[in-house]
Amino acid sequence: MDNLVNRSENVNLSLITYVCFTFVGYFIIGLSLSVLPIFISKSLGFSLVIAGVVISLQYVSTFFLRAYSGKIIDGKGPKPAVLFSMLSFSLTGIFLIIAYYFKFSPFTSLSFLVVTRLLTGCAEGMIGASPINWAIMAVGEKHTAKIISYNGVACYGALAIGASLGIIIEQKFSLYGIGILSIILGITGFLFAKTKENKTNINKKEVQSFWKVLGKVAPFGVCLALGGLGFASISTFITLYYNYFHWNNGALCLSVFGGLFVAGRLVFSNVINNYGGIKVAIACLLVETIGLLIIAFATNSQMALVGAGVTGLGFSLIFPALGVVAIKSVSPSSQGSALAGYGLFIDLSLGVAGPLIGGVADIYGMNYIFPFSSAMVFVGLGLAFLLKRKSSKN
User: Under DSSP, is residue 162 helix (H, G, I), strand (E, B) or coil?
Assistant: First the structure.
């Protein structure tokens, strides 16, 4: 019994040493996530659509780097991808500092912010599936569900903590402080990754093309993308939403969302293995839809916080639930490409969400963004039902 406990503790500790790279990367992303939309719209004077487009540029470059990332992981191992991402995150801090320095010239500042967001996307594209694959290669495929769940805790927990801390840092040290911290964290992550042993795919001859793998995981990815719109509406626009209604502590919504997200991953970590990925995804998409509707009809900030928490709880297991099923649809030798291709759809979701939801806000009003996002998640719920029916027939 003691041996089993010790073995479990060793596995968990080993996983943490890999998913910590995810935490560092997404913490850096979170630092500027709740600050830049306000900086672009209030300080630089651009529209919400422009703010949404600039924020979403990150996900455009992430989208294009996913395929390259999967190829590197399956061919050379995940370590090179992690090293590249950490260096890229450090560069984002440099360009963020430059963008703030030129704030007296809105278009110049915006141009450097565009570079910052593109670099952030490159870094995210390389870090997205790398720690997961690195951990799978290190501790074994039987821990895949746990690895994806731990990685998600690191990802969204880091986003929530980073977003809240970013506002505090910006208030005390401006964007300079965020830029300097990003540089330091990126370099630290790079140096730690250098100390770890790389793992490579032993079945390289059996690796399928990325696009063939993408076709197999696409149905699950589309479902994920629709579910991701709920998260995107909160992460990108909740501070502006609070500002619109003259409520305080908009960033607290991100923290509550992240807190319940992490709690969902930890408390319900075994439900995917017990009930199956599709069933869990259906339940989660339903809960996420309810959470977004609570925000949509909230009459005060406290009610909106409840909605953010319910949304976070609902979104918590969507990625690993569908991800486990997606990975099983391809051969083990193509897992790097499968995870990279599957991750493309959350990038697509977050990339489209900025201009799409920003356009809804500009055309119909800020109070329409959460009814819209809840409707999109509900469509994802319908697709999950179709996937369940298809799997039952097979």
Answer: helix
